[in-house]
Amino acid sequence: MKMNLPFPAELLELLACPACEHRPPLRWQEGALVCDECHRAYPIRDGIPVLLVEEATQAEPSPPSEGGEQ
Question: Residues 4-37, buried b or exposed e (16+ Cβ, 10 A)?
Fold first, then answer.
C-alpha cells in the first residue's frame, strides 16, 4: 500500500516522538505523525512535520494488527 506522504518516506525512519522518544519511529496516519507509545499525533504543516509536544493532540490508539499477538 502506497502512502501519500508530503515529505520523503525515508524521513519516517529517522523520526522519534519528542515526548517519549519512542522507537520504532512515528507512523503516518490521516495527515499526522502518530506515536503508538504515548498516542500523540503531530501535525504536518506545508509538508513539514511539526514535532513540538505543545502542538500535538491525542490520537486514538491503533487497533492490534491482524495475526499480530497470540
Answer: eeeeeeeebeebebebeeeeeebebeeebbbbee
